[in-house]
Amino acid sequence: MATVRTLDPELEHGLEILALKGGFHWTEDQTGNRFYWYRLEVSDDLTRAAELLAAHAARLCTVTAYDPVREHGYTRHEIAYHFDCRGTMVTVTVPLSERTRSVPSITPLFRNADWNEREFMEMYGISVIGHPDPRRLFLDESLDRGIMNRIIPISVLMNGASSKDLWERILGDRHAEEKVEEAQTEGEGAAVPASEEEKA
Question: Which residues, in sequence order, are CB contacts of 130 under 8 Å at separation 6+?
């Protein structure tokens, strides 16, 4: 018979305290293995949750960001951090305030969070406070931070559902901005023709 995997009671209790306002639950598969879900109410609690998980030898598997508005009635993006803690899966979800759109960096505790966090900053304009190396990964510096947020919803991108013309849309958006700037520049020095009424 397979060993049923559960969380260390000390870790479970610590995460439950952090998620008291946001909520927590666990589910079980057919063999009795548990999957733990913790929703933090404020992003500032993420650092403490990551410290607890690191102290219990957890491994960060991946980070996903999504917009749950369509499914659950929330009005803000969320970031879900997925950990493996000695064979038990733990997901810690952090809501982003529409006003601040920021989370603390967990890269100092989990180095493999680096690229996920840099991608959020670069493509979606999410501030990651205290990141040790916030340089861009992909996009040219001439493109606005968060440009992807205007072009393709974060949940669509994170689910791998973006289309092959994504970069054409980004470049098209950039070219449209350049044309507006050119028209404004040309209009500043040119004489404006009089209307028919003014001529009469």
Answer: 104, 105, 108
